[in-house]
Amino acid sequence: MEKLTLRSSTTRAKILGAIISISGALVIVLYKGPKILSATSQSPSLALHHPLGSTQMDWILGGLLLAAQYLLVSIWYILQGIFGTCLGTLIHTWGLHVKGPLYIVSFNPLSIAIATAMSVIFLGDALYLGSVVGALILSAGF
Questions:
Q1: What DSSP designation does 6 have?
Q2: Domain boundaries along the sequence of the chain
Q3: For 35-67, what is each residue's pLDDT tens digit?
């Protein structure tokens, strides 16, 4: 734990950095702005067999696939919660042991910018000006 001495320049720098980082995270979350990079356009892989109507078999197959999706997604969320929590706790504990508590806490707001970058890179989401400006403000806060 640190003592809060407002006369110290390091304490004031830490407070100012925290305020700037929080404001950058808020810009990422609350301000969208114009689109910088558009999402990748994907062509539909399944063509419609019956443009004006559908058969009974299509409804049955669609219902079964929808039920399977709900079952598998719920199992995936459970597994992701168990293993993701364990892995995150392990990484945080290791970082706490190596660098100390300030190092761990300082990367927590940066995870918002990292998640935005990963969604653009891996998921093909659109990149907006608010995300870039917010990430720059958040990084300046560090």
A1: T
A2: 11-38+60-141
A3: 988 865 544 444 444 454 567 777 888 888 888
